[in-house]
Amino acid sequence: MKRIRLTATAVAASSLGSLGLAGIGASSAHAAVTPNTAFSGKGFDTCAAPSDAQMDDWYAHSPYRGVGVYIGGSSYLCKTGDSPSGGYTADWVQHQAATGWGMWAIYAGKQGPDLTAANADPQARGVEDGADAARQAQKLGFASGTTVFLDIEPYHEDATAHAVNTYMKAFADELTKGGYRLGVYGGSLNRATGHSVLGDLVADPSLSSLVAAVDIAGTTASQANFNATTNDQYVPSTMWGKHQRIHQYTQGASRQFGSTTLSVDDDVVDLAPTSHLKIDPSAQHSARWYGSDRVGTAVATSQQLWPNTTGNPADFYAPGDKRPQAKAAVLTRSDQYFDALGGSALAAHVGGPLLLTGTGALDPAAAKELARMLAPGATVYLLGGDKALAPGVEAAVHSLGFTTQRLAGADRFTTAVDIAGQMAKDMRDVNGNPAVQRVLLATAKDYPDALAAGTAAGATPDSVVVLTDGTNMPAATSAFLHQWAGGAAGANVYPVGGAANTAAKTLGAVVPGGNLKLNTLVGADRYGTAALVARQFFGSTGTPHVYGVATGVGWADALSGGAAMGSLDGPLLLTDPNALSGATSGFLHDEAAGGSVDLGVVFGGTAAVSQQVFNRL
User: Which backbone phi and psi does 295 adopt, to 5 degrees?
Assistant: First the structure.
């Protein structure tokens, strides 16, 4: 978080006085609003509290709906003589709670150097700080039972790790006595190669059992559409998987919304069921989204995720609706899948639905849906050339007041590369340089593998999907892989399915052998391959709360459904229409055992996925 000091300093004997926190909460006696700490969505944290006017401006104009609140601690950097709490007061908390902001509490206590200094007593310091954190949380109006995230910055030595763990256990015990729960903020590393606070937590059951939630400090590049997940390769999906994670993925980003510019850390917060749905997944655990035909199913799916437009393209939310506004849409032909296989990833990436239409004229249902959920001037991406979507379709989209951008190549392979290239324009590494981190590779001679891959690429930051010609590698795909996977720091390549895996074996000619990083995902059949993709991108390192199921013997429902699942950060699984496949059933059984799943969605009517299969989900 870079909000705290990392050098040991003397701590004054009078802790509240020296920290300047004695007056916090004095004005909260008449508080009427309890801060909402059960929140999921986009959030930010910043060292000194923005003014109420700035927070109001961002609530009206930004994509954020949550804010981290520093409640104190001897290592908190932004306290001053004039503002010992950095502006985070009980009155400030009350104003934001009344406005509708979600919140999480952060306490910057003792750090490694404090705990290993001469004559330091980690146990005693933990008791003192745990009691102080409980007092400060109460003074600021946080309800009993709230999780308070203890900020622990990086350390490396064995002695420091031991001291930090002793401190955290004592902190947790005292915090619990005060009526609050322990959360921990910090980085994660492979325990075999070095210490990190989350790595050490994972390795110590006696400590991890005391932790209610984690805030993962895993810095990535500034993400287009603020696309991020709470996945972490060193925090197992079996731990803190039930809405118990935050991921701080960008630090010190300058953001302007409305008339307010702030330097913030970006966070994706998962402390409650998703608010990206029309239904409440805490009350309804299965759903079927469908229409009278494939066009209608795509529209029905869009209506579940995307609210009515406010008419203002700058708005991120509509009053009274927690779902984010759609920022764009993807339109593809309804009779063939060739140009559309990268479309679900693109739709999730740009923040909108994928809709279907006939090739010669814009389908009235698709036209009505575009007008319902997109603000005038928004971009509609058309997939394929004039033969796929005739000029009349584009003209009709223009007549609705939208901008169009056509992504079309000479064939299905170059169209997929054009789509991936459009997405890649937004992708950067941690140093701000253009970078694609993951390329999923699937055959275009059939659709199942590409549909599962497209969903994963849409849900996973810095990821795209490109296509093979069966077991052969097309020139356009080869060139794309050479560009983005050819360097030492290039993308990992994921061949999805047997045909793509065979084609990938030719990559040695375009990607130097030392740089080629292949991660093969090949199942026994289309259902097994989709389940492997789900395990790789959602189950092994993540905690999916929504999963989708579509027929594996048709493409249309899975295409629009895959776009939705990419936006919901969940996998798309495939099934036989009349019998749930063993691989799909196995994945769902494992996820159910982990307890992270809130909702299962079937895309399409009973002819696509039978009621018998639905009842088994």
Answer: -65, -45
The 10s digit of each residue's pLDDT in 22-57 is: 233 333 344 468 999 999 999 999 999 999 999 999
Question: What is residue 36's DSSP assignment?
Answer: B
DSSP string, 159-222: HHHHHHHHHHHHHHHHHHHTT-EEEEEE----TTT---HHHHHHH-HHHHTTEEEEEEE---PP
Tokens (6 digits) for 370: 């575009």
CB of 558 closer than 8 Å to CB of 572: yes
Lowest mean pLDDT among 7-11, 181-185, 531-535, 569-573: 7-11
What's the rounded Cα separation, in Å, for the pair 260 and 60? 11
CATH 3.20.20.80 fits 40-270, yes or no: yes
Residues 6+ apart with CB under 8 A from 356: 294, 295, 298, 331, 332, 333, 334, 363, 366, 556, 559, 560
Residues 201-247 pLDDT 10s:
999 999 999 999 999 998 765 555 566 788 888 888 889 989 999 99
C-alpha span between 522 and 498 (Å, rounded): 6
Residue 559 to residue 357: CA distance in whole angstroms? 13
**pTM summary value:** 0.89
Q: SS3 sequence, 307-342?
A: CCCCCCCCCCECCCCCCECCCEEEEEECCCCHHHCC
pLDDT tens digits for range 511-531: 876 677 889 999 999 999 999
The length of the chain, given as a count of residues: 617
Q: Over the Cα atoms of the chain, what is R_g?
A: 25
The candidate with the shortest Cα–Cα distance to 442, out of 536, 333, 520, 552, is 520
CA nearest to 93, candidates 3, 24, 9: 24
CA distance 348 to 586: 26
| Residue reference for tokens 């050098």 | 7
Q: Among residues 19, 126, 17, 137, which one has the least CA distance to residue 70?
A: 137
**Domain residue spans of the chain:** 40-270, 286-616
Which residues, listed in sequence order, are joined to residue 550 by a DSSP beta bridge?
Answer: 574
CA-CA distance, 466 to 582, in Å (whole number)? 28
430: Cβ contacts below 8 Å, ≥ 6 apart: 219, 220, 221
Minimal CA–CA distance to 329: which of 276, 383, 409, 278?
A: 383
